[in-house]
What does this fold into?
Amino acid sequence: MFKVRFPRCFQVTSLLISSLYVFSFSQSDNIENFSCNRKNHDPEELTNIEYLGKCIFFDKISSPPGVQSCATCHGVNVGFTGPDPSINKTGGVYPGAVHQRFGNRKPPSSAYATFSPVLHYDNQTGTFVGGNFWDGRATGELLGNPAADQALGPFLNPVEQNNPSKASVLCQIARAPYSYLWLSAFRTPLTYYTPDQINTNYNRTGLAIAAFEASNQVSSFTSKYDYYLQGKTELTPEELQGLDVFNGSGKCAVCHSSTVGPYSDKPLFTDYSYDNLGIPRNPDNPFYRMDKVFVNGEPINPEGKNWIDSGLGGYLKTTTQWASYANPNLGKFKVPTLRNVDKRPGMHFVKAYAHNGYFKSLKDIVHFYNTRDVESWPAPELSENINITEVGNLGLTDAEEDALVLFMETLSDGYKP
It folds into this structure.
């Protein structure tokens, strides 16, 4: 047995695989803004599996080759979400390795994702909790952690990295300059000659990526707010006012708790639940045009402009276990962490907010939460199951909205006290 270090540890049984070593050769052009050269790495900083996951995360494992990595859509300097302001300003949805193809939602942050529990129905609250992706379809049931399940998806998705098979992903890893890390991480060489080897080692790829996402280089808890809790810095009066609004009249903490919860000994600013906030359709979402783009002779989005994102309920419909819960969850999307919600390289850098990137600033989405039901906003994309108790008519002043934004700016990692 070997252990993968996650917020809640779980074990994966290692298969005894023949001692067939897969050779590697330099493919350094597939590393995006990162060097996997051990001499540039502090060995005390990451474990072997975390370091392997980091290399895979930044490697452009795609078809066409060398085009797209995990980091293409989950940029370090923006809190591991969409790093291109020109995309964020419009549809918020990123093109795939085949640039004419688009998915349907903006990239969520991969930071702090590994703390999410396996998707389950909470009988006490009557809600679904956990999972990964905006609609929860990476449940965590396969590998024990939703982030690990999620990491397997984009490699084979034709609107993302577009690799033709699991074996092709493993082949690219085996040829990469960091391939030697596989043996030290999993105590077995990387082989992909039989279906069992392919499935086992493809799953290990997801485990490695999730291990990196759980590491202190991605989920670091180094925000100003963290240091404030440790007594190492002070919040300004305006930031403290924002914290009071956040925990009080703004009702933010109902879903984005600022205190320690059940999944970590530090605040995660999400309860990993799902909600329909009545967010409007984003007319610039490129997915509406995907009725004219084909994969294997079929349109990516046959419904075109008539497509409606049904969120968690749409996923539940496809399951046997939870299909009966689908209708009460139509239009609900995963509550994201607010950590790094304003992290960006400069004040003029535009980030997109909400599952479809409709909002272009924290102020915009805060104002929507505050006034959805009392000002003129576009109609919600899906009007069923809208939260009317915690969003829509909060009665906050403009100054209170601004204070909320200032407080959320304290949640960006990398603060130096």
